C-alpha cells in the first residue's frame, strides 16, 4: 500500500481521484492548494503526488518548483491538467514532474502511471529556472497523445547538455523542436543558430560550420567565425545532418568530443561550449549500413532522440493547427478577423494524407486567408487531394464518412477526434453561439466550455 497526496482545488475531482486510489488499496490524503501541499510534505512521507496544474494562488508548477527547492527528497509528482499545451507539458517535465496527464484521467491510466511511479527509488533531479512564455509563432501546437509525448521528451531533455537527435519526415516541425529545446533550457538567453547541411555546397559547408581565417582560400578576404563559434554558449541546429559529407562528419565528431574547432587555414584550436541538436528525415541506421553516415557520429548524436510523428498519424492535431495558422495569418495582416473552417472544410482537412506534413497545412491556411473572401472557409476553398476519402469507411445509412486511418487507431483516440469534430461543427452551425451549440449537442454549457478548452477550440 502506498501513501499518496492529491492536490487539487476542484473538490469533486479531488474526492473522486482519492476514492479511486483508495479502491486500488492505497491511502490518499487530500489538500486543496499548493501551500497545504507543502505543509503536508513537511509533516508526512508520501510515495507519490497527484498535483493539479491550474490552482488559485500558487499554481501546480510553482508548487512543484517549491517542492524541489524546499525538500531533499521529493516523491514522483504527476501533474494533472484540463488545459494541456505543449508549453505547460514541457515546463512540467523540465521542472522534474514524473508525468503530465490530461483530465479527466481514466482509472486504467491511474493504475499505469502509479505502477511506474512507485518503482522509483529517488526523485527526479531539480530543474533550472523557468523560461519565458513560448513565442506563439514557434509553439508546438497539438493536443494529440503523440505530440504530448514529444512535449514530454523536450521537457526531459531541456536541462541536459547532451546532443539531441530529432527525427521525422520533411515538414513535421523538427526545427520547432530544436527551438523549444533551446527556449526551455538554461541556454535560453544564449544564441540559437541553425544551419541546413543540405542547402550549402559541400565545399563551403566546412567554412560555414568551423569558420576560416583570411587567405584560407580564394575569396577569403577576412576572418569568419563560423556557426559553432556564433552559437558559443547556446544551441546549434544541424538540420538535415544525414546529407552532410563524410569528411565534414569527421570534424563534427571531433568537435563534439573535444569541445573545440579549428578554423580553415589556421592551426590554432578555439574552445566552444555548444549544445548540438541534429535533425534529419533520413534513416541514419540505414545510412550507417550503406556507408554514407559515420557509425561513431551516429552513436555520439543519438544520446537523446525525439521522433516527430507525421501529421497523418496525429489527426487530432490537424484542426487546432489549421486554426492556429489562420489566426497567425490574420494577426500578420494587421489583426484582421481570422477566418473560420466550416465543418465540411474540416472534414476535408482530416481526409487529406498530408504528404508535406505541417508545412503543407500552414501554406494551405495562409493561401486560404489571402484568397478566400468570405468569413467561413468552405470545402470548395480547400483545394486538396481527397482521394483518400474514397477509402473511408461508411457510417451506416447516411453518406457520412470517416478517414480510414481512424479505423486503425485506438478507440479513445477515435472518440476524441470525433468529439472535437462534432463540437467544431456545432459551433460553426450556430455561428459561435455556445448555448445553442450545447443544446444541439445535448450537453450542459459548462461541459461544452470544458470540452472546448480540452480540444483547443476557445
* Ends apart, CA distance between termini: 41 Å
Shape: globular
**Content of β-strand:** 5-15%
CATH topology of the largest domain: Rossmann fold
Please give the radius of gyration in angstroms: 25 Å
Number of structural domains: 3
Main sheet: strands, sense, barrel: 5 strands, parallel
Coarse structural class = alpha/beta
Oligomer: single chain
Order of strands, main sheet, comes to 2-1-3-4-5
Number of helices: 19
The top-level CATH class of the largest domain is Alpha Beta
Task: Kindly report the name of the CATH homologous superfamily of the largest domain.
Answer: P-loop containing nucleotide triphosphate hydrolases
GO molecular function: ATP binding; sequence-specific DNA binding
Domain Response regulatory: 3-118
Modified residues (4-aspartylphosphate): 52
Keywords: ATP-binding, Nucleotide-binding, Phosphoprotein, Transcription, Transcription regulation
Keywords:
about 450 residues; alpha/beta; Rossmann fold; Helicase, Ruva Protein, domain 3; 3 domains; 5-stranded parallel sheet; 16 strands; ATP-binding; nucleotide-binding; sequence-specific DNA binding; phosphoprotein; ATP binding
Task: Tell me what you see in this structure.
The protein is globular, with a radius of gyration of 25 Å. Helices cover 43% and strands 13% of the residues. The protein starts with a strand and ends with a helix. The longest helix is centred in the last third of the chain and has 19 residues, at 411-429. A hairpin with an 8-residue loop joins strand 9 (260-261) and strand 10 (270-271). The protein has helices at 11-23, 34-43, 60-70, 86-94, 107-117, 145-158, 174-183, 202-210, 227-230, 246-258, 284-290, 295-301, 318-332, 343-351, 357-371, 379-382, 411-429, 434-441, 445-454; strands at 3-7, 27-31, 48-52, 77-81, 99-102, 164-167, 192-196, 235-239, 260-261, 270-271, 275-280, 304-307, 340-341, 376-377, 393-394, 401-402. It has three domains: 3-117, Rossmann fold (3-Layer(aba) Sandwich), CATH 3.40.50.2300; 161-309, P-loop containing nucleotide triphosphate hydrolases (Rossmann fold), CATH 3.40.50.300; 312-454, Helicase, Ruva Protein, domain 3 (Orthogonal Bundle), CATH 1.10.8. The strands form five sheets. A five-stranded parallel β-sheet has the order 2-1-3-4-5, sandwiched between helices. The chain is α/β, with parallel strands linked by helices and 458 residues long.
